[in-house]
From TrEMBL:
It comes from Nocardioides plantarum. Keywords: Cell membrane, Membrane, Transmembrane, Transmembrane helix, Transport. The chain crosses the membrane at residues 32-56, 62-85, 97-115, 121-141, 162-185, 191-217, 238-258, 278-297, 304-321, 327-355, 362-384, 390-410. Gene3D superfamilies: MFS general substrate transporter like domains. Residues 30-417 form the Major facilitator superfamily (MFS) profile domain. This is MFS transporter. Residues 1-23 are annotated as: Disordered. It is found in: Cell membrane. It is a multi-pass membrane protein. SUPFAM superfamilies: MFS general substrate transporter. Pfam families: MFS_1. PANTHER family: MAJOR FACILITATOR SUPERFAMILY MFS_1, RESISTANCE PROTEIN MDTM, PUTATIVE-RELATED-RELATED.
Amino acid sequence: MPLFANPSRHDTSPTPSPTPAPAPAPRHDIGFWLVGGVFAAAMAFSTIPAPLYGYYRERDGFSTFMITVIFAAYGVGVIASLFLAGHTSDWFGRRRLIWAALAAETTAAVIFLVWPALPGLLVARVATGVGVGLVTATATAHMGELHAVSRPGQGPARADRMAVLANLGGLALGPLVAGLLAQYVAHPLTVPYLVFLVVFVVAAGLVWTVPETVDLGSPRPRYRPQRVSIPAVGRPQYYAVAVAAFAAFSILGLFTSVSSGFVSGTLHHTSPLLSGSITFVVFGAAATAQIAAAGVPADRQLRVGLALVAAGVLILTGGVWGSSLALFVVGGVLAGAGAGLSFKGALSTAAGLALPESRSEAIAGLLLVAFIGLVLPVVGIGVATTSVSLPSALLGFATGLLLVTAAVGIRLRSLAASPPN
């Protein structure tokens, strides 16, 4: 998700020079778009398997539980990378971390191609997660700094919008591209990874042309993992919005793991393009909602987002049990929009509760809870399918999520009504 990079400690605004020099703005502006494109490609690669899991199930006999385990491997890679190395571009430079992310994604693509057995899929998904954890914070910060140099008279709105589009837009694009290739090109479990392998190799060369925005001459601090802390002030509110982030990411996890099983197995629509298109519109709704909510107070984003998540989950569950593709899609779009709003509101609230010097640590704590939400409920669905049907497992997921959103909404309303201490 966007907008959680550590703010740069380096002043990237252009400084006056007594002698004429070529203006750096054009290179920085081109670099802004290149980094955005690399960011989008990396995020798209992470969701490529979403419409392809049916092919893996047919080829290898994977159960729904095994599909969720493969998906969980991605979440493990993201969490480990985000907290062990995602913040180190402040020390080693933005370009180096982006290259490292591209190296991880390239490695994953090669593994998908040459080691298609279950152990290879697990390793490839972990490597994909590592790349995503490296690129997300780094590219978001890099775009903000490149924008500040190329357009010093403008505020950060353009960079923020681009971060949303590259992140959620990339996540949306991956299943659509994979679905198109699987539908109309031979070798659906090979061609999508080959296409992105070429993209990453080209991207690595293009990143070389992007200006570095970190002063690499500064002394590097001693390495430490990203700290995770919870602000003492407003801690009850922080806990509440962290749970909201958990709920938001559980929706995103659902549509990048087992939703294709509902579409093909329960709703009897086996087209990979259709499955990929549904995931595309869900993530597209999340991105659109976040962009449209610019300037809306965080508490309102949370209230509306949680309500949309609850309504969407009810409708899509009804679609599965009533064998209605239309209801499933409508519910997914509403839930996706709600997830985008909920997370944006939670992120803004968490950042606002923390002191400036501990803001990144507070955001890191929120992200930890959010990524647990990405993985844990989906694995729970997989475990449940060993005993009950997939629609029944979804009903359990929906019930739990409705209880969580209701509890968070009530808690936030109670905190807003309480007088400050």
